[in-house]
Amino acid sequence: MKYRLICIECPMGCAIEAEKEGDTVVSVAGNSCPRGKLYAENEVICPMRVVTSTVRATDGRMLPVKTNKPVKKSEIFSVMKKINAQKVTPPVRIGEVICRDISDGADLVAAGELL
Ligand code: SF4
After folding, report:
1. CA distances from 26 to 20, 22, 80 (A)
2. CATH code for 52-110?
3. 107 pLDDT band (50/70/90 cuts)?
4. From the CA of 40, how far away is ligand 1's center (Å)?
5. How far apart are the CA of 31 and the centre of ligand 1, in A?
6. What pLDDT, in 10s, does the model give residues 52-73?
7. Which one, out of 40, 48, 63, 69, has a CA that is 20 to 30 A from the CA of 23?
8. Which ligand 1 atom minimizes the distance to the CA of 12?
9. pTM of the predicted structure, to 2 decimals
10. What is the pLDDT of residue 109?
11. Whose C-alpha lies nearest to ligand 1, atom 1?
């Protein structure tokens, strides 16, 4: 199966063509650097994304949050349900863990502060 992708690893946005046979990537073309090849291989086999969102605080303010590493794209709906169930009590410092192991070992952490 052939895939046409736009690399999102940097602003150049290279157009990449990848080909997969079974569970193996057999060719990658169009990337300008090794990061693009790795991106294409991961995107075709198991796409991953860092999830960003917000969590409501007990005082009504919103805290920006993100996963501290990429999670499987197929798990994003489940991760969003868990994020929507979170509530934080200020003060919250940047980098503080809001929910440990929200998906496959990734933690949900504060991406901002509520003082
Ligand atoms: S292939 Fe390399 S240069 Fe091209 S968008 Fe991806 S990271 Fe940037």
Report:
1. 6, 10, 34
2. 3.10.530.10
3. very high
4. 10
5. 6
6. 999 999 999 999 999 999 999 9
7. 69
8. 5
9. 0.81
10. 98
11. 36
d(CA 86, CA 36): 35
Q: Which residues are bridge partners to 16 per DSSP?
A: 5
Reported as a pLDDT band with limits 50, 70 and 90, residue 88 is very high
Token pair listed for 108 = 């949900």
Strand partners, 3: 18
**What's residue 13's pLDDT?**
97
Locate 40 and state its tokens. 């294409």
pLDDT at 96: 98
Three-state SS at 39: helix
For ligand 1, residues with CB inside 6 Å are 7, 9-10, 12-14, 31-33, 35-36, 39
Nearest to 77 by CA among 96, 59, 40, 51: 51
